RNA sequence: GCCCAUGUAGCUCAGAUGGUUAGAGCGCGUCCUUGGUAAGGACGAGGUCACCGGUUCAAUUCCGGUCGUGGGCUCCA
């Protein structure tokens, strides 16, 4: 065995081959798909009559260990294209033939290892004994080449690391992610529920604590928008089907819309987006170039049909509230407006503690509306705005929406996962579809540009991210209960109520635990509820007019005067 | 939608090759206890074993379907 370190993906790719080798040994007749390394490990796709059971993974792992112990050499073999084709045909390797068709050149490489040979670009580690730490994780169905039209294969996921220690750490991280799951914490902290059978899947019910957090965020959101030159509007949840026809949603977005409601000989549809509503408001007046930009914001609840298999907690739902806004502006204002949105975005995300994010600019796709000149102007405005904000970004070529280029921002959470929240999209389509105009300096009619933007994305998704990011322990300004008073015995209840009143007058959200329980039990409960501050009140506190402060993260901090606690509390809120 | 797994008390989970009253812990209620920084004690109330149908003398258990959920594929705020 060599001491050289191979890149982790080479390592994993080799592990994936060993997996395929083991499957070939254990389950003859299985056909092979592809087996690449992925971000956190590797997988291999197999076509087999009977799906793999979870117990099969154990057997396969054992076989893999045998192969590793045998330390078989990965032998690279170059084969002439025609010969490869013949060999694969003889072996009945339909999927490999499919792959071969896409490989250019006259030579193809195979890697042979023991009795197992696989068409593969490589590279591989020199021999199977190099693999020190691996684990098979799960089985799942996956379409061949990711298309619903193709047959479904059985995919086995696994991961591999240089050392057992790193593997253990990875598995620990998976467990940490599981522990932080917003669905689990949402239940434990009594924030929200979903009543899939009784009320319908993908629809969220906010409980008092969750609703309170939501309202705190909304208030902050409204205040910030008003300070930053936005006006608020409200638009209805349904509109005549004709409106969605004009907007183009019936053409481009139909599969995500719920079927029409018919009444009074008219047909109405539930809104999947807020934009047409905002356009209705725009059209009520003749707008002058002097009026622009108009920035209209709305926490707009929209409904989108999502396939049953994709619903997931708060992250993927069927009814959600976007922190939406539409900016109607002139072409020459795009850059400034986008720049303003970027500044607002970093203010918002910073307020919640997100410091790391990745920006993507998506450019013109193959199918598009609008003039090339407009695309040019808008795309470069997006880039310039980013550059002037000294923001690094990546280009996603051709990934723009049909109606215009966009900026997507993904935030990174505590566990280094990326989440898409903010999106800023330039739209050439709707202003044209609704024949929007403003009167220019030249007294002629011009078409405004529309910018759609959502900073938090959807309230539901953002809450899910926050819950997992904070691990349920919301910072003081968001915590539904900020302070919990814990009287030790009944005789301390009265004093505690007075403390509560004092704190409540200062705007604090306070609760008292007057249950007939021991101090320890009350503290345990408050800790599990992740209340930022617990104030313990016993004989000593009552007689000295103090409270004993315990913080959720820092533990017991001793007794202080009530006014002192108020000062500390208010100071922390201002941070 | 497709593949696999799965649905037992408010929550987390046991359980029976088909057979009278289906269990535990937490939570909830009543009582005892009035305590000093993560579970004091006793008693009690909670279940059409997801729903519909089939097989059977008998189904929560076996079979089929439906509605959900989980992990994937695809898609996305």
Structure description:
With 575 residues, the chain is of the alpha+beta class. It folds into 3 domains: 8-179, Threonyl-trna Synthetase, Chain A, domain 2 (Threonyl-tRNA Synthetase, Chain A, domain 2); 186-236 and 279-470, Bira Bifunctional Protein, Domain 2 (BirA Bifunctional Protein, domain 2, 2-Layer Sandwich); 483-574, Anticodon-binding domain (Rossmann fold, 3-Layer(aba) Sandwich), CATH 3.40.50. It is 37% helix and 27% strand. It is built from 18 helices and 29 strands. An 8-stranded mixed sheet has the order 11-16-17-24-21-20-18-19. Strands 1, 2, 3, 7 and 8 form a 5-stranded antiparallel sheet that branches. A 5-stranded mixed sheet has the order 26-25-27-28-29, sandwiched between helices. Helix 1 (8-26) crosses helix 2 (54-70). The radius of gyration is 30 Å and the shape is globular. The relative contact order is 0.08. The mean pLDDT is 90. The structure holds one RNA strand of 77 nucleotides.
């Amino acid at each position: 065995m060599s001491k050289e370190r191979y890149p982790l993906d080479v390592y994993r790719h080799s592990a994936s081959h060993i997996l395929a080798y083991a499957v070939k040994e254990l389950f003859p007749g299985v056909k092979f798909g592809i087996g690449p390394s992925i971000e956190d490990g590797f997988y291999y796709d197999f076509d087999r009559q009977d799906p793999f059971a979870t117990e099969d993974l154990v057997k396969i792992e054992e076989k893999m260990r045998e192969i590793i112990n045998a330390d078989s050499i990965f032998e690279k073999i170059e084969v002439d294209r025609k010969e490869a084709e013949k060999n694969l045909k003889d072996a009945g390797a339909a999927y490999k033939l499919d792959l071969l068709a896409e490989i250019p050149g006259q030579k193809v490489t195979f890697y042979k290892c023991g009795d197992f040979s696989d068409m593969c670009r490589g590279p591989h580690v020199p021999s199977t004994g190099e693999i020190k730490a691996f684990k098979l994780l799960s089985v799942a169905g996956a379409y061949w080449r990711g298309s619903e039209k193709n047959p479904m294969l059985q995919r086995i996921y696994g991961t591999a690391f240089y050392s057992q220690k790193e593997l253990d750490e990875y598995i620990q991280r998976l467990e940490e992610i599981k522990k932080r799951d917003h669905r689990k914490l949402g239940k434990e902290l009594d924030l929200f529920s979903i009543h899939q059978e009784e009320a319908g899947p993908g629809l969220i019910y906010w409980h008092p604590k969750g609703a309170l957090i939501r309202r705190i965020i909304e208030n902050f959101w409204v205040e910030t928008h008003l300070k930053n030159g936005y006006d608020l509007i409200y638009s209805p949840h349904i509109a005549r089907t004709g409106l969605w026809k004009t907007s183009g949603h019936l053409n481009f977005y139909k599969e995500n819309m719920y079927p029409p409601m018919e009444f009074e000989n008219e047909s109405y549809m539930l809104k999947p987006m807020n934009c047409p509503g905002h356009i209705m408001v725009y059209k009520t007046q003749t707008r002058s170039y002097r009026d622009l930009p108009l920035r209209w914001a709305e926490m707009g609840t929209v409904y989108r049909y999502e396939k049953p298999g994709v619903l997931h907690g708060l992250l993927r739902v069927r009814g959600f509230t976007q922190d939406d806004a539409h900016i109607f502006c002139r072409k020459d204002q795009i850059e400034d407006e986008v720049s303003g949105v970027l500044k607002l975005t970093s203010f918002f995300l910073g307020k919640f503690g997100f410091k790391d994010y990745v920006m993507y600019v998506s450019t013109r796709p193959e199918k598009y509306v609008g003039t090339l000149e407009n695309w040019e102007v808008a795309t470069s405005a997006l880039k310039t705005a980013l550059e002037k904000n000294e923001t690094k970004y990546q280009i996603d070529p051709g990934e723009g929406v049909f109606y215009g280029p966009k900026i997507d921002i993904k935030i990174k959470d505590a566990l280094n996962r990326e989440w898409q929240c903010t999106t800023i999209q330039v739209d050439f389509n709707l202003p044209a579809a609704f024949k929007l105009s403003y009167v220019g300096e030249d007294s002629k009619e011009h078409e405004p540009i529309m910018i759609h933007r959502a900073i938090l994305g959807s309230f539901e998704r953002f809450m899910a991210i926050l819950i997992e990011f904070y691990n349920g322990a919301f910072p003081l300004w968001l915590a539904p209960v900020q302070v919990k008073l814990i009287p030790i015995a009944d005789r301390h209840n009265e004093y505690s109520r007075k403390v509560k009143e004092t704190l409540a007058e200062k705007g604090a959200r306070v609760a008292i635990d007057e249950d007939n329980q021991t101090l320890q039990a009350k503290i345990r409960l408050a800790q599990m509820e992740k209340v930022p501050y617990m104030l313990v009140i016993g004989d000593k506190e009552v007689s000295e007019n103090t409270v004993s402060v315990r913080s959720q993260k820092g533990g017991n901090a001793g007794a202080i005067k009530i006014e002192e606690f108020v000062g500390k509390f208010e100071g922390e809120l201002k941070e």
